[in-house]
Amino acid sequence: MTDLNLGWFAVSLDVKDIAKSLEFYRKLGFQQVDGGVELRHAALQKGDCRIGLYQGHLDPAETQLMFWQGDVRAITKALGEQGLSFERELTDEHGGSGALLRDPDGHPIYFVNLPGATRRDVDGAAPPVDTL
């Protein structure tokens, strides 16, 4: 199998109250690096760990494994050839591409590429993933 460039990884959490979630993760030593309560999303960093908190942005509204800026077209082709089925097939919308599959336990795994976006752009100012 070809070594696929999946992009960088972040965990995205659907939260009910972003202010409470920010307070909790700060107590664990995470620092807010982007976003904010008023935006209803925030990126948190501790060492090499990155968490995205989203209040009302995720679709599906559950914890998601996110791979950003990989070659979504190549990823979906290669994984499809290995027999994996995507819940949301490759879409090319809003200047970007995305696809969603689920692991054997039902966890959503998103592959998203927004051309020209950097990690800072994606963590702090990306459109909600349900628009891709």
Topology (SSEs and partners):
Blueprint: E1 7-14, H1 18-27, E2 31-36, E3 41-46, E4 49-54, E5 64-69, H2 72-81, E6 88-93, E7 96-102, E8 108-113, H3 119-125
Parallel strand pairs: 1-4, 5-8
Antiparallel strand pairs: 1-5, 2-3, 3-4, 6-7, 7-8
Tell me what you see in this structure.
The protein is built from three helices and eight strands; from the N terminus they run βαββββαβββα. The protein has helices at 18-27, 72-81, 119-125, and strands spanning 7-14, 31-36, 41-46, 49-54, 64-69, 88-93, 96-102, 108-113. The two termini are 27 Å apart. It is an alpha+beta fold. It is elongated, with a radius of gyration of 15 Å.
Order of helices and strands: EHEEEEHEEEH
Uncertain residue segments: 124-132
SS-based class: alpha+beta
**Multimeric organization:** single chain
Considering DSSP H and I runs of 4 or more, what fraction of the residues is helical? 10-25%
| First-residue to last-residue Cα separation | 27 Å
Mean pLDDT metric: 87
How are the strands of the biggest sheet laid out side by side?
2-3-4-1-5-8-7-6
